Amino acid sequence: MLTILADENMPYVDELFSDIGQIKKMAGRAITPDDLINVDVLLVRSITQVNASLLAKANRLTFVGSATIGTDHLDIAYLEQQGIFWTNAPGCNATAVAEYVLSALSVLAQRFELSLADKTVAIVGAGNIGQRLARKLTALGVDHFFCDPPLARAGTQGDYRDMNEVVKADIISLHVPINRQGDDITQHLVNKDFLSQLKPGTILLNSCRGDVVDNKALLEHLQQGNKLYTVIDVWQNEPTINLELLDLVDIATPHIAGYSLEGKARGTYMLYQQWCHNNNVAINKSLTQLLPAVSVGQLNIQSKLSPSELGKLIQFVYDIRDDDELCRLRGVDAKGFDNLRKQYKVRREFSAHSIAATEQWLQQQQMLQQLGFSKSEKQESSQ
Q1: Got the DSSP string for 153-203?
Q2: Which helix (H) or strand (E) holds 2?
Q3: pLDDT tens digits, residue range 165-218?
Q4: What SS3 state is found at 115?
Q5: Is domain 292-375 in CATH 3.10.50.40, yes or no?
Q6: Topology match between the domains 2-88 and 94-252
């Protein structure tokens, strides 16, 4: 039987992989070369650096799966040189991150009496997350455009603009991978020069990679009293984050934007699918069978939702303020930051909730379906 070593915080590993091999679990940051002796399958998240040093004693390893969209923690060249198959889970948490952004925007709109209807959103990075966010913004009727130079050069269809236009946007949401070299460097994409070009009242959200934003430059910008609403989920030097910056941002969270139950489960499930495909094993388990029902599964629409009511609905499913409060209370040191991620609550996506409406409010139901909610099989009576 195979031996599988998995990050202890990956959900549904037992349910999906117990038929495949013997499972051992560890904290992702604690995995050492000795732990990989006689291990066949390694399942990790982004906090585990999979490189030559870690794999020095990996005498049987044939499969490395990362339940993440990014791969910057994997030494892909080394893995391929050693003939070790690797895979990740692109798009697994795209919906969760898009809904994180909507929750943040709804809270900022409420807190500062802002209207999103007259705002333009620059989505920097048009991959799985950027595209998912764009669809949700379309459902809400919020104008947006993309900035993604590689896709723009490739002639990808859509409204693609350059960084000169990004700095003019009302809202800037970052969804790029970390590139430290080449034509499209994203390390410190948001730097002192970028920040100096933003108009007062701009909203900046970073839920991709900490190094995309120069935290020192952002701190100095905010300390100077510039009016910039900031939402930061990813930080430089995690899990030891800049506490001065933490105090000044409007919403702070501990790298959990993609941490919906669906997103985490989808990541593990995609690795299971890939392992089965590689080994010609029939896929006999489904993601829907794993996920539990929510306590309030059906929501009934009985009137047209105002922007305020729509914001409250978004916050009913996921209220980012809870994570902001916990980050400020417990994320102030490395252990606390990691524990917030390790012990993260069960958070569901919009799709876990179905919408029922009378015939009079079917248009509202359709809008909420476009936003990501499910359609109830049982519609409300008009009586």
Answers
A1: HTT-SS-B--HHHHTTSSEEEE------SSSS--TTSB-HHHHHTSPTTEE
A2: strand 2-7
A3: 999 999 999 999 999 999 999 999 999 999 999 999 999 999 999 999 999 999
A4: coil
A5: no
A6: yes
Closest CA to 209 of 178, 182, 179, 230: 178
List the catalytic residue out of 15, 165, 220, 238: 238
Convert the pLDDT of each residue in 247-287 to its tens digit. Answer: 999 999 999 999 999 999 999 999 999 999 999 999 999 98
**Per-residue pLDDT at 325 exceeds 90:** yes
Residues in contact with 10: Cβ distance below 8 Å, sequence separation at least 6, in sequence order: 43, 45, 67, 264, 267, 268
**Which CATH entry fits the domain spanning 94-252: 3.40.30.10, 3.40.50.720, 3.90.550.10, 3.30.420.10?**
3.40.50.720
Enter the CATH code of domain 2-88: 3.40.50.720
Q: Is 73 tagged catalytic?
A: no
Q: Is 238 a catalytic residue?
A: yes
Set 45, 175, 255, 353: catalytic member: 255
What is the average pLDDT across 110-130?
A: 97
Helix axes 320-330, 94-112, angle to 10 degrees: 90
Residue 83 one-letter amino acid: G
Out of 132, 144, 188, 209, which one is annotated catalytic? 209
Task: For the chain, give every domain's residue range.
Answer: 2-88, 94-252, 292-375
Verify whether residue 8 is a known catalytic residue: no
